[in-house]
């Protein structure tokens, strides 16, 4: 028979073994939680953090409300256009509404091209020739020196039809002033004379003098 001291030693050993296995089981549970639960929650938290971020883009051109636009990270160009309200003159066919935007991106919405007036035929020479033949006389045709010489006006920029890119080529006119010229034209109608450019905010006598011989209002 075992003595009381021996019985107590056996019981103590069994308890130690039991505590050991409980500790092992606890470690396994903790490892399982760490492996299968925490990574999933961490991924969800990262996804939510990404969703809560935003990007900022700048929109100008043929829109009612140009300026900075705040959008979610995965926004498309269509989302930005909804906030700035494109004008009826906006040429949406030249841009891609499905384009994915990036933070800090600049977007210029183009205008539709303005149709150029067709030149009218000048029948004066033909009429003079037919009249001379009917009277039995030889018609004298004077050459049109203006038509033979290269037209200087072909190199001028028409401020009533030019888009922002063309206006930007003028000296002293950058992207901002080009947008102001187009905005003034939309609000007040066509310019009657080149000097009317000085009515646009930011264009004074000095700025206009730099471009005076490069602009026109005619076809």
Automatic annotation (TrEMBL):
Helix-hairpin-helix DNA-binding motif class domain location, by residue? 165-184, 195-214
Q: Which SUPFAM superfamilies does the record associate with it?
A: RuvA domain 2-like (SSF47781)
**TM helices/strands, residue ranges:** 20-38
**Gene Ontology terms for molecular function:** DNA binding
Any one annotated GO CC term: type II protein secretion system complex
Q: The organism's lineage?
A: Bacteria, Bacillati, Bacillota, Clostridia, Eubacteriales
Superkingdom in the source lineage: Bacteria
Which organism is this entry from?
A: Desulfitobacterium hafniense (strain Y51)
| GO process terms (BP) | DNA repair; protein secretion by the type II secretion system
UniProt cross-references to InterPro entries, sorted A to Z? Competence_ComEA_HhH, Endo/Exo/Phosphatase_dom_1, Hlx-hairpin-Hlx_DNA-bd_motif, RuvA_2-like
Region of interest (Disordered), ranges: 114-135
The residues forming the signal peptide are none
This protein's UniProt keywords: Membrane, Transmembrane, Transmembrane helix
Q: Which Gene3D superfamilies match?
A: AF1531-like domain
* Name of this protein: Helix-hairpin-helix DNA-binding motif class 1 domain-containing protein
Q: What Pfam families does the record point to?
A: HHH_3
């Amino acid at each position: 028979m075992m003595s009381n001291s021996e019985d107590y030693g056996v019981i103590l050993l069994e308890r130690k073994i039991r505590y050991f296995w409980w500790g092992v089981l606890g470690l396994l549970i903790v490892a399982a939680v760490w492996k299968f639960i925490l990574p999933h929650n961490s991924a969800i938290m990262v996804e939510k953090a990404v969703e809560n971020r935003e990007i900022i883009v700048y929109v100008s051109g043929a829109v009612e409300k140009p300026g900075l636009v705040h959008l979610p990270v995965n926004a498309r160009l269509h989302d930005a256009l909804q906030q700035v309200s494109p004008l009826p003159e906006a040429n949406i066919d030249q841009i891609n509404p499905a384009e994915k935007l990036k933070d800090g991106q600049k977007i210029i919405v183009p205008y539709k091209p303005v149709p150029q007036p067709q030149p009218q035929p000048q029948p004066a020479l033909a009429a003079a020739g037919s009249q001379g033949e009917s009277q039995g006389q030889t018609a004298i045709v004077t050459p049109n020196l203006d038509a033979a010489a290269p037209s200087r006006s072909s190199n001028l920029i028409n401020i009533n039809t030019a888009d922002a890119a063309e206006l930007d080529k003028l000296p002293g006119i950058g992207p901002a002033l080009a947008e102001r010229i187009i905005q003034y034209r939309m609000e007040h109608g066509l310019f009657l004379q080149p000097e009317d450019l000085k009515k646009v905010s930011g264009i004074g006598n000095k700025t206009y003098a730099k471009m005076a011989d490069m602009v026109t209002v005619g076809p």
